[in-house]
Write a structure and sequence with these properties.
Strand order of the largest sheet: 8-9-10-11-17-16-15-14
Number of helices: 1
CATH topology: Neuraminidase
Strand content: over 45%
Largest sheet: 8 strands, mixed
Distance between the termini: 38 Å
Shape: globular
Number of domains: 1
Length: 406
């Protein structure tokens, strides 16, 4: 087991940067003066040497965090996964106080390598979708889904097929690598009331030829929705949530939540990345994803004088809390010149956002996951790198955040 509390220390340079760019008085509009009390707990180490954390929580209270570490001799690696990504998984059964390393069996190789696409079905089974899939021709992609019936103590793989017309194989990414797939499974698997599943993915269609700003080989993405009627064995294309050109990268890294209560019960709300220096965008659907509203940039009123600011970040996460409030987490990459990890809140089902709150101000990969582990208590994970972005000295941290109405 491993557990560690990180003392709250700031270097002089970090303190000066914070004073130069302080966290604004979130939600300080003329009609709303910080409606939430947000209590941020101490930082704790979740996983050493790892980055890009994704987290799953179960109804039974188990917390699973999957990160990636550098693969030894990655230059000579010729396996099915992304060359630099070797997954590492830890589990906690005591509310994120202690963590135990989890490993697949020898026959399972690397085990699940995910980008957050997990779901605990109403039956209790956990589905875990690998990030990548293989192009099989004729608009078909084959990937691997893992099943667990014992809180991720053991997992069993099986194949799935996704039919995505016009999707291109062999994407480029922002590191200059070629991703051996045409669709990327990211963040969201939802179970509808009738048992059908929805998946948020992203990729490039044959007509998408606008280059990203910093890697011409990486074309601007579009965010997509898939549906399965057989518990994830077969998937069909439903709709494009949003398509570029937009920002530096187009629409990618989508996350979707289905509202469970209130005026818009059943609505799908989707947040999407558009670039390292661009706003997060939001779209919604009231017909299970068949059609979507036009995507709009997230903004929040940070000044009592009515001034607004874009909410900029990458790989947003999004959940609905037990009381119906929405919380998003995201981070800033070094390009934005404002390193840090943040959360933001919506008290009106995504119509507006408030109280953007800084949780860390260090160099980070900017990937986060947030979950509500008990009513009003959030747990967020994120990574930090020492001294510079590509530093081999890095780790995944976690924090408890308590949220109360004033």
């Amino acid at each position: 087991m491993m557990t560690a509390a990180q003392p709250q220390t700031l270097s002089i340079a970090c303190l000066l940067a914070f004073l130069a760019h302080p966290t604004p008085a979130a939600g300080a509009g003329k009609t709303a003066q910080k409606p939430l009390e947000i209590l941020v707990g101490p930082q704790t180490v979740v996983m050493e040497d790892a980055i890009f954390p994704y987290m799953t929580t179960t109804r039974e209270g188990t917390i699973i965090v999957v990160g990636t570490v550098l693969r030894p001799n990655s230059e000579s690696y010729n396996g099915p996964n992304y060359p630099r990504d070797l997954p590492r998984t830890v589990r906690s059964t005591d509310g994120a106080k202690n963590w135990e390393l989890w490993s697949p069996t020898e026959e399972q190789g690397d085990g699940p390598i995910i980008s957050g696409c997990t779901l605990q079905l109403r039956s209790g089974r956990i589905l875990i979708f690998d990030y990548y899939s293989k192009f099989m021709g004729d608009s078909r992609f084959q990937g691997q889904v893992w099943h667990s019936d014992d809180q991720w103590q053991t997992v069993t793989p099986s194949p799935y097929i996704a039919h995505v017309p016009r999707a291109k194989p062999n994407l480029g990414d922002d590191r200059g690598d070629t991703v051996p797939t045409g669709i990327l499974w990211h963040r969201t698997i939802l179970e509808l009331p009738n048992g059908d599943l929805l998946a948020g993915i992203y990729g490039v269609f044959k007509e998408d030829d606008t280059p990203s700003q910093y890697k011409p080989s990486m074309k601007q993405f579009r965010a997509l929705l898939l549906r399965s009627t057989d518990v994830g064995k077969n998937w069909s294309y439903v709709s494009t949530i949003a398509a570029g050109p937009m920002g530096q990268e187009g629409f990618n890294e989508p996350v979707i939540v289905r509202l469970s209560q209130g005026r818009h019960e059943g609505r799908l709300v989707c947040l999407m990345r558009t670039g390292r220096e661009n706003p997060i965008y939001q779209a919604h659907s009231d017909d299970e994803g068949a059609t979507w509203s036009q995507a709009q940039p997230l903004r929040w009123q940070y000044s009592r004088w009515g001034k607004w600011r874009d909410i900029v970040g990458v790989d947003p996460d999004l959940i609905e809390m037990h009381d119906g409030n929405l919380v998003a987490s995201f981070g800033h990459k070094p390009d934005f010149e404002d390193d840090g990890i943040f959360v933001a809140f919506s008290l009106d089902q995504g119509h507006s956002w408030t109280q953007v709150t800084r949780l860390a101000m260090d160099i980070t990969g900017a990937y986060t996951t947030v979950r509500e582990i008990s009513p009003g208590k959030l747990f967020i994970v994120y990574d930090k790198r020492d001294d510079y972005y590509t530093s081999p000295s890095r780790r995944i941290y976690g924090r408890i955040i308590e949220v109360k109405r004033r």
